[in-house]
UniProtKB/TrEMBL annotation:
This protein's name: histidine kinase
Domain of life of the organism encoding this protein: Bacteria
Location of the PAS domain: 264-335, 543-589
Recorded catalytic activity of this chain's protein: ATP + protein L-histidine = ADP + protein N-phospho-L-histidine
InterPro entries named among the record's database cross-references: HATPase_C_sf, HATPase_dom, His_kinase_dom, PAC, PAS, PAS-assoc_C, PAS-like_dom_sf, PAS_fold_3
UniProt keyword list: Kinase, Phosphoprotein, Transferase
All copies of domain Histidine kinase, residue ranges: 1051-1261
Domain PAC, chain residue ranges per copy: 211-263, 338-390, 465-517, 592-644, 716-771, 847-899, 974-1026
Protein EC: 2.7.13.3
Coiled-coil region(s): none
Keyword Kinase: yes
Length: 1261
């Protein structure tokens, strides 16, 4: 029955082999030692489909290590006990690729003995790599969260448990706790955002979609962060929400940067719009071109039209294109900012002039160079310059007609320019070099101070103040001149220039001078009051504004003014109201006082208050409107600021839990701020009485408050008081009240005012501080630590009790510097004095002071002192505070550790050993100095797993990764070895042992261990192995020689005994025979026996010759040539038998061998196949070469008579052994063939089946 089951299972496996192309399948027949692989398995091992596996590599070329050992143990158990097994192992394919395989086997048994082993093998390399990648991705996620300042979270709805990643705890500055809940998270959410967040989670539970959002959190230290949250809702199979998970990122800095960027962009847009300028960018690598919106307007392109540099370049004036090319090339080549000018042709053919500023910057994101810059429309500027030239020509003509001249003055360089007519006005020779002194020397002495003041004021205010003064000619005649000018700033170097005209007004000086002074006074008054005068002539629609009104509106005085101009300045929000008011005024004849906003050309907004009057004719028609406008922007701003300050005061009161109050004891009137109502938990604005207020005071404190109130009326002074409130909800608050009594001239109290602060939290904090101080005292005692304060200005010190104990001084004893230094060890006193002086001088302390003290009993203790300097706002030292710790025991331990480390380093150097530590979480490695030396690393090398893996021999890197993965998975460290390659190319073998450190959750956080350079031991071991191998080979050879000798002895004794006995018998018969004819017959028998004896002796001699000449001539022989020669020798037999000889020498074509022996092997085996052919079929012979385990093999296969291996297998290669009746059969060919092969350290075996054929397997070397 079991045999039938086994056959059935075998059939199923065979069917699987034929049908499954993805799974590798193998069979191993134990009795016949046959191994079979299907094509899929051969593909896995990357061998050809013709490849024939053998018993040495049933499972392929397994990599050395624990996995291979486990596989071999399982295989042995399967063969011995019939135990099936499943496991994973690693192989190296024929192409050198490393693959991880999973195997599942089944052992077939018969009579409790394993007869065959079948198995299924799958390639799991991909999943293994994925596992490694998953592990690395987890680490990378942790690093990414850290870099991105983000954290992940998961909320289990059913359990209401919240899981945070480590970095989420870091962001919230919270220690890890277990468990967490949704309410824990809400504690951190900003009060103003809590409702939004709760609503978001409620929406996610309803819609099963988690919306992205931004919200704020408040940390325990009061700092506020802005978080960005994204998430996902997880549901079960019934659609019920079971989990919400996601990530949160701290975008506080990003928000700040975005806000700053928006501000900068807004400022840039305002600047562009006010200066007719725009910005642009050109990526020199990609050609990408960007520009600001204002450039569409400047360059006359349709807004939103796709732009490129080529499109813009086509608009550049043809005469300027080469100039533009050279300028841009210069910027790209030198990387220096450059400004140039070119013209542009608009769509309607107009020409505009642009001033371009270009610079070269590096784009760190795309790793490319970009040209950036600005474009400024200077068309009007150029036009003005041309007009200025023309006007200068007209001015020169005008100067000659009038007593006027033109001048320029640069204060910084004292450069002065006068027009020709000005030389004549000032009676100055044109040949003289001009300077400010040339002008000032002509000024009347009485006017010099006035003139200097005006010019200095103009230079200081960057605004020219027109003035009139007297000058004296060389003939002492006096002229009166009027100076009109303006101040300009050079955009390139920022220098000032004063320029203007000078008019000789001597004849009408009196009238004009008075008029000028009054105008100046009026203008000055207008400027001081921010007032301007206006007039509107309605019939002609002409408008007049005073100079200051032009300045208020930012309107150029040279531009025309109309009613529409005035209306255009009014803000959009107020324009309709103002126009309606004016229309109504024209109907009624009454001008209403009004306030409205105006918007200047630069976008700024002002608030204007206007009053006026209307003049009408007899028919009621309006002839004229006139009045004044006052700029009250600053007044409005201050009013708004006052409102904001009040709001801020209320907000500050709320934050500080402070409320303000007033009480008039005569009128009983009480005034409270809103927050004062909140502190007492009264409804804001409700009516208050003293009795009502006193009802809220805690019963135990009411008497003290009443006594203080009575004392205030007596002393008329308000002392600070602290008392408790007992509110309606039974809660208790502690308040601190500070006030002031206001008296009249007679000293009667007319008002009390002051503030109340809710100090409940402060009182609790003070109580907590007391508790903390108790804990601190306990901690100081445990840590052998004490705290201190020292005022270097007064020399006084305060010590904690434990510090007195450390210094062996009675607690409370006054401490000064002398007492402190008296306890310092004499060898350390001077150093400590200098270090303290340095701290006081530098007003900062950055180091720990270490010194020794000597106690009363003579014991010496080591102290470490840490100091912090407290300074006032001016940077003066107020005091120094700090701690002092008795580190005597620690220093002793450190000294012991140093000594042990020295011993360890010495031991490591002696044994080529080094210790190491690897922080798995942060991928940080620490290695001892000797280990760095062994690994050939510089001591400054940043060590992580990648750096270490780069040092590992390429062939061993997969092994190292596999070992680390196994350690991390199993949490157990098994010793392993690998090779490294040093910088000089030397290869060393390292053996690593270690241990695994786990955190509280049981996760691996750190590996520690030691690494030893065992190169010499490995080399010595390899030498021993090589010596053992040589010894084994010598033993094999010697055994073979002994076997050959024994065989030779057997042959000699067996094959020679019979002929010699026959000769002795024949000799006896010959001597005893009397008949001559009988003697002749006997003599003939002699010849036959002697012939056989000679033949046997010749064979034995040839065998000995073969064994002696085995190490003789060796040549590089090609199998095809040897076969061809054999076929020529056996040509007649091949033709007579019709034999077909095929061969496949593709695996290996040649071999280094004795030519006579190889020809003999081919000749004997092929001639045997022809000699012992089957009578019913033509001989078919197949010869195949191969390489197995580095050795060349031959396979001779025929379809002849075959041999009964069961009866004759052990006699196959014996001398004179014949198994078929053939006239030429002598039993010598196979004997000599084996002798020749063995003599060359080879082997020969055979498989045969009667009437099927025979196959000979030969290993040549």
């Amino acid at each position: 029955m079991s045999k039938e089951n086994t056959l059935l299972q075998t059939d199923q496996v065979d069917a699987a082999i034929n049908s499954n192309t993805d799974i590798g399948i193998f069979k191993f027949e134990v009795d016949s030692n046959k191994v079979y692989w299907n094509d899929a398995l051969k593909e896995i091992h990357q061998v050809q489909k013709t490849y024939i596996p053998h018993t040495d590599n049933i499972y392929g070329n397994c990599k050395e290590g624990t996995l291979k050992e486990n596989l071999l143990k399982a295989h042995t158990q399967a063969l011995l006990n019939g135990v099936s097994f499943e496991l994973e192992y690693e192989v190296l394919t024929s192409k050198g690729n490393s693959r991880f395989l999973s195997i599942a086997t089944h052992a077939f048994k018969s009579d409790a003995k394993c007869t065959s082993l079948h198995g299924f093998i799958t390639d799991i390399t991909h999943s293994k790599v994925k596992n490694i990648e998953t592990h690395l991705l987890k680490k990378q996620l942790a690093y990414a969260e850290k870099l991105a300042n983000s954290g992940s979270w998961k909320w289990d709805i059913n359990l209401d448990t919240l899981t945070w990643s480590g970095n989420f705890y870091h962001i919230l500055n919270r220690n890890k706790e277990n468990p967490l809940s949704f309410d824990t998270f809400l504690e951190y959410v900003h009060e103003e955002d809590k409702e939004k967040i709760v609503a978001k989670f409620d929406l996610a539970l309803k819609t099963k979609h988690f919306p992205d959002s931004n919200y704020r959190i408040v940390l325990k230290d009061g700092s506020i962060k802005t978080m960005k949250s994204i998430g996902e809702v997880i549901t079960d199979t019934h659609g019920k929400v079971i989990t919400i998970m996601g990530t949160c990122q701290d975008i506080t800095e990003s928000k700040v940067r975005d806000h700053q960027l928006k501000q900068k962009n807004k400022q840039l847009q305002l600047t562009e719009s006010s200066t007719e300028a725009g910005t642009w960018q050109l990526n020199t690598k990609t050609g990408a071109f960007k520009w600001s919106e204002n450039l569409y307007k400047i360059t006359d392109f349709e807004y939103g039209e796709p732009m490129s540099f080529e499109v813009l370049y086509a608009r550049i004036h043809p005469e300027d294109k080469s100039h533009v090319d050279e300028a841009l090339k210069c910027v790209q080549k030198n990387g220096i900012k450059h400004t140039f000018i070119h013209r542009l042709i608009t769509r309607n053919g107009c020409v505009r002039t642009l001033e371009i500023t270009a610079d070269l910057v590096s784009n760190k994101i795309s790793n490319s160079k970009e040209l950036i810059g600005t474009a400024l429309d200077i068309t009007n500027k150029v036009k003005i310059e041309h007009e200025l030239i023309e006007k200068n020509q007209l001015l020169n003509f005008t100067e000659h007609l009038t007593t006027m001249g033109y001048w320029r003055y640069k204060p910084e360089t004292n450069d002065v320019f006068w027009s020709d007519n000005l030389f004549q006005i000032f009676d100055q020779p044109k040949t003289d070099k001009l300077s400010f002194s040339s002008y000032f020397n002509k000024v009347h002495p009485d006017d010099k101070a006035f003139v200097k003041e005006k010019i200095d004021q103009s230079i200081t205010d960057h605004q020219f103040y027109d003035f009139t003064h007297r000058i004296i000619h060389r003939n002492n005649s006096i002229k009166i001149i009027q100076i009109i000018g303006k101040v300009t700033i050079n955009e390139n170097d920022g220098s000032q220039e004063l320029l203007g005209t000078c008019l000789d007004i001597t004849e009408n000086e009196s009238r004009e001078f008075e008029l000028t002074k009054k105008n100046q006074q009026l203008n000055f008054a207008e400027k001081l009051a921010m007032i301007g005068y206006w007039q509107w002539d309605t019939p002609t629609n002409k408008v007049y504004w005073s100079d200051n009104l032009h300045a208020i509106y930012g309107h150029d005085k040279s531009d025309d003014l109309t009613f529409e101009t005035y209306i255009s300045y009014i803000h959009d929000e107020d324009r309709e109201r103002v126009v309606s008011s004016l229309e109504n005024a024209m109907l009624t004849g009454k001008f209403p006082e009004s306030t409205y906003k105006i918007q200047l050309n630069d976008g700024s907004v002002k608030t204007i208050k206007t009053v006026g009057q209307i003049d009408r004719n007899n028919q009621g028609e309006v002839l004229k409107m006139s009045g004044t406008c006052q700029d009250i922007t600053e007044v409005k701003r201050k009013e708004l600021e006052l409102l904001q300050k009040n709001d801020q005061f209320n907000f500050a009161e709320k934050i500080a839990n402070i409320g303000s109050w007033q009480w008039n004891p005569k009128t009983k009137e009480i005034k409270w701020s809103d927050n004062h109502y909140r502190i007492y938990e009264f409804e804001i604005g409700c009516s208050l009485h003293i009795e009502t207020i006193l009802s809220r005071i805690h019963p135990e404190d009411i008497r003290v408050v009443q006594e203080l109130k009575n004392q205030i009326f007596i002393d008329k002074k308000f002392e600070k008081i602290i008392f408790r409130l007992k509110l309606n909800n039974e809660t208790t608050k502690t308040v601190e009240v500070i006030g002031q009594a206001i008296t009249d001239q007679e000293g009667n109290i007319i008002l009390f005012k002051g503030t109340s602060q809710d100090i409940t939290s402060r009182v609790k904090a003070e109580q907590l501080i007391k508790e903390k101080n108790q804990l601190l005292s306990f901690t100081e005692e445990m840590a052998l630590m004490g705290s201190w304060q020292w005022n270097p200005n007064t020399g006084t010190s305060n010590w904690s009790d434990n510090l007195y104990k450390i210094y062996d001084i009675e607690p409370g004893h006054p401490i000064d510097m002398d007492l402190f230094l008296s306890r310092v060890h004499t060898d350390d006193t001077n150093r400590i004095k200098k270090e303290l002086e340095t701290i006081v001088k530098a007003k900062t302390s950055k180091t720990i002071l270490s010194f020794r003290i000597v106690l009363t009993n003579g014991n010496i203790r080591s102290i470490e002192l840490l100091a912090e300097v407290i300074k006032d706002r001016q940077g003066n030292i107020l005091e120094m505070i700090g701690t002092a710790q008795d580190v005597t025991d620690r220093i002793r331990r450190e000294q012991d550790l140093i000594e042990k480390n020295q011993l360890l380093n010495f031991a490591e150097q002696l044994s080529s050993l080094g210790h190491w530590k690897w922080d798995i979480v942060n991928d940080i490695m620490e290695k001892s100095a000797n280990l760095l030396k062994i690994l050939d690393f510089n001591k400054n090398t940043h060590l992580d797993f990648k750096t270490y893996l780069d040092r590992v021999h390429p062939d061993d890197r997969d092994k190292v990764i596999s070992e680390i993965e196994k350690i991390l998975d199993s949490k157990n460290f098994d010793k392993f070895q690998h090779r490294i390659i040093r910088d000089n190319g030397n290869i060393r073998t390292i053996e690593i042992i270690g241990a695994v450190l786990l955190n509280e959750a049981g996760d691996v956080v750190e590996l520690i261990g030691s690494s030893q350079d065992i190169t010499e031991q490995v080399e010595a071991q390899q030498k021993i192995i090589k010596a053992n191998k040589n010894l084994e080979e010598s033993t094999i050879i010697l055994t073979s020689k002994n076997e050959q000798l024994a065989e030779f002895n057997h042959i000699t004794s067996h094959n020679l005994r019979s002929p010699v006995s026959n000769l002795n018998a024949l000799l006896g018969l010959f001597k005893n025979s009397e008949s001559e004819s009988k003697k002749v017959e006997i003599f003939e028998k002699f010849e036959i026996v002697i012939h056989h004896l000679t033949e046997t002796l010749n064979t034995l001699i040839e065998t000995i010759t073969v064994k002696h000449n085995a190490g003789g001539i060796k040549e590089n022989l090609y199998f095809e040539q040897t076969l061809s020669k054999t076929k020529e020798i056996l040509a007649a037999e091949i033709m007579n038998t019709g034999a077909i000889i095929k061969y496949d020498f593709s695996k290996i074509e040649n071999v280094l061998y004795n030519p006579i022996y190889l020809e003999s092997v081919f000749l004997n085996l092929i001639s045997n196949s022809l000699k012992y052919k089957a009578p019913d079929r033509a001989p078919e012979i197949l010869i195949i070469s191969n390489v197995v385990n580095g050795k060349t093999t031959l396979e001779f296969k025929d379809n002849g008579l075959g041999i009964d291996m069961k009866n004759y297998g052990d006699k196959l290669f014996g001398l004179n052994k014949v198994f078929h009746k053939h006239p030429d059969a002598r039993g010598v060919g196979l004997f000599l063939t084996k002798a020749q092969i063995v003599a060359m350290n080879g082997s020969i075996s055979a498989e045969s089946e009667v009437n099927v054929g025979t196959t000979f397997f030969i290993t040549l070397n």
